[in-house]
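User: Predict the complex with orotidine-5'-monophosphate.
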Amino acid sequence: MPDHRTRFLQLALRAQALRFGEFTLKSGRLSPYFFNAGLFNTGAGLAELAVCYADAVDADGVDFDLLFGPAYKGIPLATALACEYARRGRDLPVAFNRKEAKSHGEGGHLIGAPLDGRRVLIVDDVITAGTAIREALGIIRAGGGLPAGIVIALDRQEAVDPATSRRSAAESVAIEQGLPVVRVATLDDLLAFTASDSTLAGHRERLLAYREAYGSLT
Ligand code: OMP
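Assistant: Here is the predicted structure with orotidine-5'-monophosphate placed in the model:
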């Protein structure tokens, strides 16, 4: 069986969650590819994706005892991963946030298992500049959780400001926070994949040019 990186890329292309074209990113960069985790929108697709996440996390050996999905895209990802771990015999607590704090009913903006004192693994879709992940770390600490690591499906391996540093945003977060950042796949994996599949070869030049302009050297 191919490893989790190849399985993930095949799955993402099949679900059209990974597309080639022209996309404007949150950073304003014009990218020749885009990963939209919202297009894993069936039970079977999410279940298969969760297997890739769990394989990547287990291969890394990161130690944690709660899964946290940042709103919105991380919520089904963390939930699907919790189901995959239950299938593997590990029943993990899962929690997520809402973007708007609720003032009635149970109130607050955290939902699911309490974070207090738990070693939390953040489950999210993609890292470009690391802004979304830094926000999630703040939410977890404010909720009493202890960040233990981050897992993302795709590391775009971009430098925040290539003129001053070619360190990737994922590596910056890892160093600055002292946390492991597990990536199911990276831009490098996508480039290797396009080299091995003739139907994708036409996208390679533009991916390489994009990496040249914005890519990290880490
Ligand atoms: P950072 O916060 O810059 O790390 O970017 C992560 C966010 O970028 C994601 O949560 C998405 O909102 C968005 N995004 C994607 O979903 N897929 C991509 O391929 C690229 C981006 C992006 O805008 O950079």
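Residues 25-27, 34-36, 125-132, 169 surround orotidine-5'-monophosphate (CB under 6 Å).
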